Amino acid sequence: MIEVYYAEDDETIGKSVKEYLEQQNCKVTVFDRIADVKKALIGHLPTIVLLDWNMPDGQGSELCLWIRERWITLPIVYLTVRGDSHDIVTGFQNGADDYVVKPFDLAVLYSRILALLRRTEGVTHTKLFCDDLMLDKEKTAVYNGQKEIVVSQPEYRILLILMENKGKTITRNQLLEQVWDRSGNYVNDNTLTVTMKRLREKLNHPACLKTIRSFGYRMEDTQ
């Protein structure tokens, strides 16, 4: 099911888009304030975000930039009231993937959503996110914001396991087995402690990487 977050302060438009997309088996949540969209995104990421250009508490371009600083691959479509080249250019500069000009045919909007998701299919599966951290599995690289962080192979494996299981607590024994024992290298428990300490320091002690005392570790979004 396609899950849509839609920032739209016009109740009539928001209702019609929601009703139509839900008929197409989408799940749609409409927000009339940018602040509410941010709060929802921090708790859960949808499949795609639709952004109205003008909102009561700001512009869609501002929200788009905020999203892109945190979730690079989340698909975003602008809904602008006119084919204003300035709006469109600004939107793409701030990270939008596509735009639809109001008034629009609902079937056209839905087809554009499907087309965008086809283009981006698989991209999100190669990139894992937690707060400002991003792990790119295709490049075998770790980023804190826009800065790439150089990590060792064990540090990368630890972060990969935790981010692939975001929200779940992974025990110390599980990490020891999956990071070291699979290679036939026996290590003691202190090796994990030291490796985790170095990883935290390299990542500037992120709040999203939590220690569950006497048990293990967990990654979870805090922003």
From TrEMBL:
Residues 3-117 form the Response regulatory domain. The keyword Cell membrane does not apply. The keyword Hydrolase does not apply. Residues 125-221 bind DNA. Residues 125-221 form the OmpR/PhoB-type domain. It holds the Pfam family Response_reg. The modification 4-aspartylphosphate is found at residue 52. It comes from the Bacteria. One of its GO terms (biological process) is regulation of DNA-templated transcription. GO terms for cellular component: cytosol; protein-DNA complex. Keywords: DNA-binding, Phosphoprotein, Transcription, Transcription regulation. GO terms for molecular function: phosphorelay response regulator activity; transcription cis-regulatory region binding. InterPro entries: CheY-like_superfamily, OmpR/PhoB-type_DNA-bd, Sig_transdc_resp-reg_receiver, WalR-like, WH-like_DNA-bd_sf. May play the central regulatory role in sporulation. It may be an element of the effector pathway responsible for the activation of sporulation genes in response to nutritional stress. Spo0A may act in concert with spo0H (a sigma factor) to control the expression of some genes that are critical to the sporulation process. This is Stage 0 sporulation protein A homolog. It comes from [Bacteroides] pectinophilus ATCC 43243. The lineage of its organism: Bacteria, Bacillati, Bacillota, Clostridia, Eubacteriales.
